[in-house]
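ok so I'm stuck.
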Amino acid sequence: MDRFDAMQAFARVVETRSFTQAAQTLHMSKTTVTQLVQQLEARLRVKLLNRTTRQVNVTADGAAYYERVVRLLADLQDAETSLSSAAAAPHGRLRVDVPSPLARLILVPAFADFHARYPEIQVHLGVSDRVVDLIDENVDCVVRGGEPGDPSLIARHVGDLAIRLYAAPAYLARAGTPVHPLDLETAPHQIVGFLWSSTGRILPCTLRRGEDSVEVRGRYALAVDDGNAYLAAGLVGLGALWLPHYLAAAHVERGELRPLFEDWSIAPMPLYLAYPPKRHVGARLRVFIDWVVELMAIHAPLPARG
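replied:
not stuck anymore, here's the structure
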């Protein structure tokens, strides 16, 4: 039995709660993973996992062993990385999932710079606004707007997106220009609804002016769960919408969108990069995180620390 392979197989089974999923992410057969865990249990003379036909749960002994295994595997990878870093640049495949507008307008246009720095890294970029199961789908990290929905993930605050309300000239010509944010709650006004992936509900908007604060939900005819579709609906005049500055700026400049309620403010939307807990951050993920932080310092800077 290769003890390293056995410990790695055991750790991945604990993380995925599935021998099948663990085998897929390790590129092994399910039989091999099962045998490695069984051999590990035989060597340790302790039961690490409880198996049923539907799920796999870690035992108390297994949980304690898992904590030590994860640290050991991370230390081993650190040792290998430190010895080889002088001779080899970060390399390998990185799986990332980001919102579609962020990919289209910021990450993809800048990707040539990342590739020039790290030509040996291959990035598989998933483009979506859906909730991603990082472990089951073997995704290294995600970038998402809003507070992290899964508290178990390790999340790094990489930017703050400036938000405003906008509407297309065609919408304003038909419905008139709303004077107060609450006008969007009554006819003839309406919004384009954005379905928040973590809840499946329409995302409300809170506006402030001095001591006044109002939450706008709005009437809507169409709700979507994708950023590009949301923008497209607003551009054809289906309703008012709240957008980050980077997504609206070019359309405002061309006269395709007009800002609303300029004397009201909306709190910035935090942007987070998140990755699975207890997974070692290898060189390729580390340099990708650093690159995203650089980009967001330009497009969605965090407030200066006083």
